[in-house]
Automatic annotation (TrEMBL):
It is found in: Membrane. Keywords: Membrane, Transmembrane, Transmembrane helix. It comes from the Eukaryota. The keyword NAD does not apply. It comes from Cucurbita maxima (Pumpkin). This is Bax inhibitor 1.
Length: 264
């Protein structure tokens, strides 16, 4: 019995090792690339904290708007032309760009806090969960498996731009706005997958510019967060309006009865 059990245990262990090794080979992510990804996501987390600080500064001093958006674009352009060996300078530029982006979406966050603060928390948690799930899907998939989606996503972005251009000339509608909102969110989720695999592939080829890669993921995260927040705000507004209508209907029904009871 002992011999049989030892044979069984050795076979089970070999099956487990085989499945783990085959799964690891299917991912084909080397330890160096894994270390690079850790650095990228750590930098991304710091950038998100800087964005939250920018939104908070807007609520204090009302600084968010067109100027912060232009300043953020300028910071990103400056970062892209700065040589990679100036690491500290590029990290500071990334944090500055993230802070300005947070200030730029500060007006939307202020509206969310006025309507329902819980919507803001739910939108951030939902964005973080979706971002983490799709990033993990891209990491555990085979290399270059989803890179072909880049062309489709670019075509979708072009279609949204032309649709926005046409609606600005001929006038938009609620249906077009909803389509842009939901379809744009779908495209951004796709870009999370594609950009993650691009980062992995470039790291395998020797491109370990973690600042630029963190900037790419930061743009995807903020874009998805804004759209999810707008969708949740619209749904919350519709629910509040329905509740108000119900209350008005109940008051209108109960008012004549109350008057009749008072008048006897």
């Amino acid at each position: 019995m002992d011999v049989c059990s030892s044979i069984f245990d050795s076979q089970a262990g070999s099956r487990n090792r085989w499945s783990y090794d085959s799964h690891k080979n299917s991912r084909q992510i080397s330890p160096a690339v894994q270390s690079h990804l850790q650095q990228v996501y750590l930098t991304l987390g710091c950038a998100l904290v800087a964005s939250a600080a920018g939104a908070y500064l807007h609520m204090l001093w009302n600084i968010g708007g067109v100027l912060t958006t232009l300043a953020s674009i300028g910071s990103i352009a400056w970062l892209m032309v700065t040589p990679p060996y100036e690491e500290k300078k590029r990290v500071s530029m990334l944090m500055g760009a993230a802070l300005l982006q947070g200030a730029s979406i500060g007006p939307l966050i202020s509206v969310a806090i006025e309507i329902d603060p819980s919507v803001l928390v739910s939108a951030f948690v939902g964005t973080a969960v979706a971002f983490g799930c799709f990033s993990a899907a891209a990491m555990f998939a085979r290399r270059r498996e989803f890179l072909y989606l880049g062309g489709l996503l670019s075509s979708g972005i072009s279609m949204l731009l032309w649709l926005r251009f046409a609606s600005s000339i001929f006038g938009g509608s609620t249906a077009i706005f909803k389509f842009e909102l939901y379809f744009g969110l779908l495209l951004l989720v796709g870009y999370v997958v594609v950009d993650t695999q691009k980062i992995i592939e470039r790291a395998h080829l020797g491109d370990v510019d973690y600042v630029k890669h963190a900037l790419t993921l930061l743009t995807d995260f903020i874009g998805a967060f804004v759209r999810i927040l707008v969708i949740m705000l619209k749904n919350s507004t519709v629910k509040n309006e329905k509740k108000k209508k119900k209350r008005r209907g109940l008051n209108e029904r109960s008012y004549p009865k109350a008057v009749a009871l008072v008048l006897g």
